């Protein structure tokens, strides 16, 4: 335990430094992006550094994993169904590998893969949890904006609304 | 009376915040006229208090409270029909269960969505629905993503009391064209498809005949469903009555890997979900995003994916004599370096052409490379693309869709100039139609006469009509002057037209004069509708030639996804490189072909016509030896002794941030301030001041909606659509579906 602590202390600086780099280059999260003002041309301030435990040291995950950006996102609602069951959790998954990601196996015609993360998806309750996890693991991440929802008010009576102008809709229902 | 109210789910609190209609509606004018009263009401759903805007349907209140109400006919984006009865809920002091979609939410009402009465009622409804529904889930394409399947598992009974000797109802299948497959026995008559066709797509021929058990859905006469949005009825249909013909029996939903991405078939940047299995894309589905495409995508977006399998460039090719020989990457890149040297191209004689499907990263890399080689000859793959566009690229608001896509619904008077949004941005067109139907929106059109799915005042075909409009000569021009939120939509083809400069000049002056309505802090009514996915990003990064460069005859030409180039514009002795994913026109012209990745195979940035940067995502690996496009250019830069300073995509995006931060501020819109927009219009007017008018009429730039880029030209489905809808021929599927055995499929 104490060994872990000491690595933690030793690595904190490195981890924080890296997360800043990732925050700059991967700032896809529009929610947190400050609205740009025309007059304000000052440098956008970095988020204050947080304590990040460098868990990747002891996680046993292959070091190559650190070179792959992860995506933090919510499942979008499927348009073929009305339910939105899976869309409240946040997930982390990996981009496919361009070369060895998948190929057709010449023996069976099935898909083979050299990518050990291709079937992995991690679920979180909140976006912050997911970000925290990615930072702990030392992964570059980007956050995909959740679905933008605007629900106009609907009313059955609108079907029978009187419109004084020329009729613009022909209902064949 | 004792009631059992189910404990609220932990997720419901989050749902409430997410959906809360009262907040999301603030500042937006909805199209429904009854929603003008913005007062809120409070009611209790399943023991939880919820506040919704007055006039909401009860089902919306239940949804806001986090209680799921099963439904078949109700859909958030269609008018309420109230004919499936699946959404029954119990309301206090109501003797019977009520259909929550057809019932307005009342202040102080107490609603239960999960009581024994509700369950019994839903079970009864389910029994009726299933009385005539065939039991063919194992061979039905909807299986696994079927509302009827799921809801009968949850609410249905385990047996039926209908044992008719005559069997179940049989309905003849309809032939709706090469995209939508019908199996009308399965129809539960929810009429979602009819309402979609009436309200969104503008196909008024799809409708119902008969009533009760004999009701049928169809086109009344033997006719195909000719709409560029018709694929959406496949999603809307809650059962398997309408399924996708090209996708029929190809995959099951649970085998598919979903990848959220962005569409590149037009410049709307529709959000899509690419469903893949193994190494191939099986289908493309829309991803709801109210800021962009709502829930719809066009048929080209949805069905052109099979073009990704044909005509692909998979290995680098070098031309020897009159044929291509495959080569290794090293040889191909070395051949280009040699070719560049041998051609003797210096400075502006090195030309780069960015085509329709070039992603932002690769265009930035190519621009940097060409600039490093001492050239400014950055050309766009369009008519007149060899010169800088008339609107210049210095001010963003001069070439972007400033009104934003959802903003179109706020306009009360729209002038379309030289554009047919139905084919250039089908999803945007449905927004105009929605607004036109529900408000008193007036539309005027200058350009070629087209069927827009909404009525318009025709003002003329050429630049003279624009001048007349500016002078206020027509009835429509007067209406436009007095409109509160007028909107001018200028098509991208205007830039390519001989009179483009004159039109921009006239309109820029008009907008400046009427800035009190057209350019205000809340509203910018001057919008340019781009039709090509790469164009807004190209303008944004300044992928345009300098005046000197545009007059230079190139000796070395680098075609990046450029497949619309006029072969005559390429000098005979020039050394031509084509980089792209399809063996289309551009590859034929090339001396060396480099295989790139298509949009489903790379996670790249796309900027839509509003200037919204969105990140696509790779769903499947690129085939063969093809590589991500920016990497090819990066590798080439080493061989031509102009190495680019970025080694990974993150540092390339840093470079993009240096060029323009908006390129990497994903999913957000940077609106232009009033001052900047007006200054932009001033420079636009000054830059086009002595333009001549030739009087040639505007022609629509897209004559065949289904085939506009290498992917859709390689697609078999799109070829069928061209035959069926553009040429009006028999498209080859109908013999198939009239065979007797096809009725079971
Ligand atoms: S075909 Fe589908 S969408 Fe149309 S009415 Fe029947 S069940 Fe509803
Ligand atoms: S959803 Fe309410 S009646 Fe169909």
UniProtKB/TrEMBL annotation, chain A:
It is found in: Mitochondrion inner membrane. GO terms for biological process: electron transport chain. It comes from the Eukaryota. Keywords: Electron transport, Membrane, Mitochondrion, Mitochondrion inner membrane, Respiratory chain, Transit peptide, Transport. Its main location: mitochondrion. GO terms for cellular component: mitochondrial inner membrane. The keyword Membrane applies. InterPro entries: NADH_UbQ_FeS_4_mit-like, NDUFS4-like_sf. It is a peripheral membrane protein. Residues 38-47 have a biased composition (Basic and acidic residues). Pfam families: NDUS4. Accessory subunit of the mitochondrial membrane respiratory chain NADH dehydrogenase (Complex I), that is believed not to be involved in catalysis. Complex I functions in the transfer of electrons from NADH to the respiratory chain. The immediate electron acceptor for the enzyme is believed to be ubiquinone. Belongs to the complex I NDUFS4 subunit family. PANTHER family: NADH DEHYDROGENASE [UBIQUINONE] IRON-SULFUR PROTEIN 4, MITOCHONDRIAL (PTHR12219:SF8), NADH-UBIQUINONE OXIDOREDUCTASE (PTHR12219). This is NADH dehydrogenase [ubiquinone] iron-sulfur protein 4, mitochondrial.
From TrEMBL, chain B:
The keyword Nucleotide-binding does not apply. Gene3D superfamilies: 3.10.20.740, 3.30.200.210, 3.30.70.20, 3.40.50.740. Its cofactor is [2Fe-2S] cluster; [4Fe-4S] cluster. Residues 117-156 form the 4Fe-4S His(Cys)3-ligated-type domain. It comes from the Eukaryota. Residues 39-117 form the 2Fe-2S ferredoxin-type domain. SMART domains: NADH-G_4Fe-4S_3. Pfam families: Fer2_4 (PF13510), Fer4_NDSU1 (PF22151), Fer4_Nqo3 (PF22117), Molybdopterin (PF00384), NADH-G_4Fe-4S_3 (PF10588), NADH_dhqG_C (PF09326). InterPro entries: 2Fe-2S_ferredoxin-like_sf, 2Fe-2S_ferredoxin-type, Mopterin_OxRdtase, Mopterin_OxRdtase_4Fe-4S_dom, NADH_UbQ_OxRdtase_75kDa_su_CS, NADH_UbQ_OxRdtase_ferredoxin, NADH_UbQ_OxRdtase_Gsu, NADH_UbQ_OxRdtase_Gsu_4Fe4S-bd. The keyword Transcription does not apply. Keywords: 4Fe-4S, Iron, Iron-sulfur, Metal-binding, NAD, Translocase. SUPFAM superfamilies: 2Fe-2S ferredoxin-like, 4Fe-4S ferredoxins, Formate dehydrogenase/DMSO reductase, domains 1-3. Residues 256-312 form the 4Fe-4S Mo/W bis-MGD-type domain. Belongs to the complex I 75 kDa subunit family. NCBIfam families: NuoG. This is NADH-ubiquinone oxidoreductase. It comes from Rhodofomes roseus.
């Amino acid at each position: 335990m104490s060994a872990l602590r000491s690595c933690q202390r030793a690595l904190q600086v490195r981890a924080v430094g890296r997360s800043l780099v990732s925050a700059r280059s991967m700032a896809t999260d529009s929610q947190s992006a400050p609205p740009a003002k025309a007059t304000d041309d000052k440098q956008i301030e970095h988020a204050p550094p947080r304590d990040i435990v460098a868990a990747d040291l002891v996680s046993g995950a292959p070091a190559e994993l650190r070179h792959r950006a992860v995506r933090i996102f919510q499942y979008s609602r499927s348009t073929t169904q009305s339910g939105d069951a899976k869309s409240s959790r946040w997930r982390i998954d990996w981009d496919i590998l361009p070369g060895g990601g998948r190929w057709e196996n010449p023996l069976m015609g099935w898909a083979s893969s050299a990518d050990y993360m291709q079937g992995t998806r991690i679920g979180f309750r909140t976006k912050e949890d997911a970000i925290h996890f990615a930072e702990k693991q030392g992964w570059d991440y980007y956050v995909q904006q959740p679905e933008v929802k605007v629900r106009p008010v609907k009313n059955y009576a609108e079907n029978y609304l009187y419109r004084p102008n020329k009729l613009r809709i022909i209902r064949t229902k | 009376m004792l009631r059992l109210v189910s404990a609220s789910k932990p997720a419901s609190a989050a749902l409430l915040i997410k959906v809360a209609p009262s907040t999301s509606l603030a500042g937006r004018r909805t199209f429904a006229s009854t929603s003008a009263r913005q007062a809120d009401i409070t009611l209790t759903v399943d023991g939880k208090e919820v506040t919704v805007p007055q006039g909401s349907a009860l089902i919306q209140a239940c949804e806001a409270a986090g209680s799921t109400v099963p439904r078949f006919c109700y859909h958030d984006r269609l008018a309420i029909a109230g004919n499936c009865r699946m959404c029954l809920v119990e309301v206090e002091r109501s003797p019977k269960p009520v259909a929550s979609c057809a019932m307005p939410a009342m202040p102080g009402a107490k609603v239960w969505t999960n009581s024994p009465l509700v369950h019994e009622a839903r079970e009864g409804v389910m029994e009726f629905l299933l009385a005539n529904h065939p039991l063919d889930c194992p061979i039905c394409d909807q299986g696994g993503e079927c509302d009827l399947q799921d809801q009968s598992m949850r609410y249905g009974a385990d047996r039926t009391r209908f044992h008719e000797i005559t069997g179940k109802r049989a309905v003849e299948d309809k032939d709706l064209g090469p995209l939508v497959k019908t199996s009308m026995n399965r129809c539960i008559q929810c009429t979602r498809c009819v309402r979609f066709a009436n309200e969104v797509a503008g196909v008024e021929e799809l409708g119902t005949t008969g009533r009760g058990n004999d009701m049928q859905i169809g086109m009344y006469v033997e006719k195909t469903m000719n709409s560029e949005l018709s694929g959406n009825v496949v999603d809307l249909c809650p059962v398997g009555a309408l399924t996708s013909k090209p996708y029929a029996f190809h995959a099951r939903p649970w085998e598919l890997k979903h990848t959220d991405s962005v569409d590149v078939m037009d410049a709307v940047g529709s959000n899509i979900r690419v469903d893949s299995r193994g190494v191939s894309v099986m289908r493309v589905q829309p991803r709801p995003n109210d800021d962009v495409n709502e829930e719809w995508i066009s048929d080209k977006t949805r069905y052109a994916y099979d073009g990704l399998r044909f005509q692909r460039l998979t290995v680098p090719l070098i031309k020897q004599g009159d044929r291509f020989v495959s080569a290794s990457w090293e040889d191909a890149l070395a051949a280009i370096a040699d070719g560049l040297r041998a051609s003797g191209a210096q400075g502006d004689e090195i030309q780069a052409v960015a085509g329709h499907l070039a992603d932002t990263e690769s265009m930035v890399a190519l621009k940097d490379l060409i600039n490093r080689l001492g050239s400014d000859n950055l050309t766009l793959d369009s008519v007149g693309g060899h010169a800088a566009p008339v609107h210049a690229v210095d001010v963003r608001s001069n070439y972007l869709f400033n009104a934003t896509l959802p903003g179109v619904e706020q306009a009360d008077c729209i002038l379309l100039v030289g554009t047919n949004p139905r084919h250039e941005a089908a999803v945007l067109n449905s927004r105009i139609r929605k607004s036109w139907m529900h408000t008193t929106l007036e539309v005027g059109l200058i350009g070629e006469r087209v069927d827009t799915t909404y009525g318009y005042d025709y003002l003329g075909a050429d630049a003279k009509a624009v001048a007349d409009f500016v002078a206020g000569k027509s009835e429509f021009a007067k209406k436009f002057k007095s409109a509160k939120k007028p909107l001018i939509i200028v098509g991208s083809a205007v830039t390519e037209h001989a009179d483009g400069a004159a039109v921009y000049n006239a309109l820029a002056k008009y907008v400046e004069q009427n800035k009190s309505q057209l350019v205000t802090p809340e509203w910018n009514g001057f919008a340019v509708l781009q039709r090509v996915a790469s164009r807004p990003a190209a303008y944004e990064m300044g992928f345009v030639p300098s005046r000197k460069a545009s007059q230079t005859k190139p000796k070395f030409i680098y075609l990046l996804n450029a497949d619309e180039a006029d072969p005559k514009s390429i000098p005979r002795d020039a050394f031509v490189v084509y980089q792209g994913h399809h063996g289309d026109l551009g590859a034929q012209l090339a001396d060396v072909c480099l295989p790139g990745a298509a949009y489903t195979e790379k996670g790249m940035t796309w900027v839509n016509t509003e200037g919204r940067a969105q990140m696509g995502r790779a769903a499947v690996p690129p085939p063969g030896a093809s590589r991500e496009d920016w990497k090819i250019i990066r590798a080439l830069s080493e061989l031509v002794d102009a190495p680019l300073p970025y080694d990974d995509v993150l540092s390339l995006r840093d470079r993009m941030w240096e060029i323009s931060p908006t390129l990497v501020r994903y999913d957000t819109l940077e609106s232009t301030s009033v001052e900047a927009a007006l200054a932009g219009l001033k420079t636009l007017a000054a830059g086009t001041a002595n333009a001549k008018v030739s009087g040639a009429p505007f022609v629509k730039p897209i004559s065949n909606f289904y085939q506009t880029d290498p992917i859709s030209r390689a697609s078999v489905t799109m070829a069928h659509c061209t035959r069926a809808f553009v040429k009006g021929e028999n498209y080859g599927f109908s013999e198939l579906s009239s065979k007797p055995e096809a009725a079971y499929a």
